[in-house]
Amino acid sequence: MIALNFSPFPELKTQRLLLRKLEITDANEIFFLRSNEEVLRYLGREPAKTVAEAEEFISKIKKAVDENDSVLWGITFLSDPSTIIGTICLWNFEKENYRSEIGYILHPDHWRKGIMKEAINSVVDYGFDVLGLHSIGASLSPENIASSSVLESAGFVKEAHLKESFYFNGKFTDKAIYSRLKKAN
What we know:
It contains 5 helices and 8 strands; from the N terminus they run ββαααβββαβαββ. The chain has 185 residues and is an alpha+beta fold.
């Protein structure tokens, strides 16, 4: 069974990105990400209505990280580490199965630039190499072609298509399940 410890917080760096801990000063960017219709289109989540809701979300995330339940990074550019352009997380850990899920959102101004693939690969490497995970999954709307494509480009494979398995806003929708396994050395 894996043991999780996110203290000190695991900052991750890539060629262009710094994945860092969220701070309360990030509330405006988090509010945008959690209230923007384009970002939320396929997520099945009610939009945030106030910056205070974003602040509550950041507090909730800090608590989850402190309790080693999940880890969420703010995605920034190395050249501008104070501005959050997205988030990415490992959550829903199944410690006994060495598995977790990955989730992510990105500001629309940064779509189709390889940013999320870069962030996903960094987080997956952390999950496999540092946390000792064997598999990382993702669930998403099959209509979200861009997310499916970025997962596939990052080595994830579609494992299932669940019919009408998600209920939101008065209707049932399908869900696609993707997974990536740790490669044997």
